[in-house]
Amino acid sequence: MLARYLEVDKRAIIDNLETVRKEVGVSVMAVVKGNAYGHGAVEVSATLADAGVEWFGVEFLDEGVRLRESGIEGRILCFTGPVDKDDCRAFIEYDITPAMYNLDAAAMLNDVAEEEDIMFKVHLKFDTGMGRFGFTYDELDGVIDRLKAFEHLEYEGAFTHFAAAFAKKPDYTLLQLERFNKCMDKLETGGIKVQIRHAANSVAAMDFPQARLDMVRVGGALFGTAMFKNRSVKLKKTALLKAILMDVRDMPKGAYIGYGCTYRTSKPMRIGVIPFGYFEGLKVQRRNYAFHFLDLLRILYHDIMDYLRPVPIVFKDGRPLRILGRIGLQLAVVDLSGVDAHPGDEVSVAIDPIYLDDTVPRVYKY
């Protein structure tokens, strides 16, 4: 018996894919970076490939290599490019398409492709306001001729990444899209015409139809975690963490529970021990991120409320179970007072799989 595992619903992932396809009407790239947002990149990618997905997106080269070595045959776009010639050779050997956003990397990849006597496809990346990787509009005049000189690179695609598609106001996303379209116009005027333009992530794909272009890159939407303004789009939850009660005990009044003796029973209690702690991701995730001072105030408010009135994250048969004391590395204690529970019974834990350690088994159902 597995002490704890993540149950992944492949049918729900496929249903979410079909919901996205119906809404956007263009090709969908499945973004499976970060171990498919914690769901298991290899198994999820195989399932999506069977459902007709042709493009997969990863952040790093090693993620793409793992997919190839596991039998994934579709196109793989790596959102980062090569940093040395070994990377270049690996991109070519495993037929993984790199993002290209600086001339030194382009020259290096072109040299290796020339050694192999091949034309190699890349996607040009443009920084329109994210502030990370990418060519900018202002530098394109000096870049286009250099790019055209690389005779062994084929510029199949071009893309950008939106910084604030989730924001209440659309202004910045629309500005980024305008900048990207200007980059595409300048690129074509300079003699480079790409086949695939893509800009929209999950949120932009739903809320900004004008940003769908030739393809959308969807990750969070596949796994039911993306939050849209478009309320007509309904996504399914795709994973649930399950664990068994390792032990059930009756504790007397005045007993300490957990590290630091931070919790002391005020009355006789029934407790259960679950095989899950902060190593596996319990209570590690935040429900909010601080982008502005008001965000910080909201986080502080929620943290105080969580202390005074903790949000339940462990459930048995739908009933919330209070966590008692400090969470350990791989164990936690829950309050089972008034609950019909026995060792070996199953509980569920509300956690985003992206925070779940890879050592926790993934079990797939369809």
From TrEMBL:
<dbReference type="InterPro" id="IPR000821">
    <property type="entry name" value="Ala_racemase"/>
</dbReference>
<feature type="modified residue" description="N6-(pyridoxal phosphate)lysine">
    <location>
        <position position="33"/>
    </location>
</feature>
<protein>
    <submittedName>
        <fullName>Alanine racemase</fullName>
        <ecNumber>5.1.1.1</ecNumber>
    </submittedName>
</protein>
<dbReference type="Pfam" id="PF01168">
    <property type="entry name" value="Ala_racemase_N"/>
</dbReference>
<dbReference type="InterPro" id="IPR009006">
    <property type="entry name" value="Ala_racemase/Decarboxylase_C"/>
</dbReference>
<feature type="domain" description="Alanine racemase C-terminal">
    <location>
        <begin position="238"/>
        <end position="365"/>
    </location>
</feature>
<dbReference type="InterPro" id="IPR001608">
    <property type="entry name" value="Ala_racemase_N"/>
</dbReference>
<keyword id="KW-0663">Pyridoxal phosphate</keyword>
<dbReference type="InterPro" id="IPR029066">
    <property type="entry name" value="PLP-binding_barrel"/>
</dbReference>
<dbReference type="GO" id="GO:0030170">
    <property type="term" value="F:pyridoxal phosphate binding"/>
</dbReference>
<dbReference type="InterPro" id="IPR011079">
    <property type="entry name" value="Ala_racemase_C"/>
</dbReference>
<dbReference type="InterPro" id="IPR020622">
    <property type="entry name" value="Ala_racemase_pyridoxalP-BS"/>
</dbReference>
<dbReference type="GO" id="GO:0005829">
    <property type="term" value="C:cytosol"/>
</dbReference>
<dbReference type="GO" id="GO:0006522">
    <property type="term" value="P:alanine metabolic process"/>
</dbReference>
<dbReference type="Pfam" id="PF00842">
    <property type="entry name" value="Ala_racemase_C"/>
</dbReference>
<keyword id="KW-0413">Isomerase</keyword>
<dbReference type="GO" id="GO:0008784">
    <property type="term" value="F:alanine racemase activity"/>
</dbReference>
